[in-house]
Specification:
Elements lengths: L1 H9 L1 H34 L8 H14 L4 H15 L5 H25 L4 H9 L4 H31 L10 H11 L4 H31 L1
Helix pairs in contact: 2-3, 2-5, 2-7, 2-8, 3-5, 4-5, 5-7, 6-7, 7-9, 8-9
Subcellular location: Cell membrane
Membrane topology: Multi-pass membrane protein
Family: Belongs to the binding-protein-dependent transport system permease family.
Length: 221
């Protein structure tokens, strides 16, 4: 318990919490936008879609199916050569942000696609019958109608990314996962471990509540 108090007073606990939030917010910001774009393209280019294009859909679908199932710890190592070419390093926080964003992009793409497919085809057909072009249909019908489920999908993705941040320590990154491993598990101090776990649970619960609230508002409009 004394060590936990010392870590709190030294600011290391707060630093680890900020690192975790930085990882997650960056990955959800950049990866969320890329995943949204990929998910929309997957939806509209599939067979029967607004912009049906089998070659495009096949390529995007293959990429998502290829990268999404890879366990994150293996993906980190697999992406190191690419990260060195793109950001100049394969370790530390920059590498962790790169890997998280990469994983989030493909994971969110599939979530967006699955949720946009819940939009009734009749609504889309009605918009097209009224003269709306493909882009207008996507922006004013498809996305708004599927926004509630998409928000729930992003909430799920946020929680998944929080889980991935626990792997930061293996490449020299920080965050609560590495904090719990370094000062809790390796030093046989369950107080530190469970304090980090509780902070993560609080973050996840807060995001889940906010996500559910926003989704309910969108679904009732």
């Amino acid at each position: 318990m004394d060590q936990l108090i010392e870590l709190f007073n030294s600011g290391k606990f707060l630093e680890a919490t900020i690192q975790t939030l930085t990882y997650v917010l960056f990955a959800m910001g950049v990866g969320g936008i890329l995943g949204l774009i990929l998910g929309i393209f997957l939806t509209v280019t599939r067979k029967g879609g607004i912009l049906e294009n089998n070659p495009t859909y096949w390529i995007l679908n293959f990429l998502v199916n290829f990268f999404r199932p890879i366990p994150f710890v293996l993906l980190i190592f697999a992406l190191q050569p690419l990260a060195r070419a793109v950001i100049g390093t394969g370790i530390g926080d920059p590498m962790m942000l790169f890997a998280l964003t990469f994983a989030a992009s493909f994971g969110i793409a599939r979530l967006v696609e699955q949720n946009l497919l819940t939009v009734s085809p009749g609504v889309i057909e009605a918009a097209r019958a009224m003269g709306a072009g493909p882009l207008r249909t996507i922006l004013t019908v498809l996305i708004p109608e599927g926004l509630g489920p998409v928000v729930l999908g992003y909430t799920f993705a946020f929680i998944a990314v929080v889980d991935m941040t626990a792997m930061a320590g293996i490449i020299g990154g920080g965050g609560l996962g590495n904090f719990a491993m370094q000062y809790g598990y390796r030093q046989f101090n369950p107080w530190v471990t469970w304090s980090a776990v509780l902070i993560i649970i609080l973050i996840v619960q807060l995001v889940q509540v906010i996500g559910n609230w926003i989704a309910r508002k969108l679904l009732r409009r």
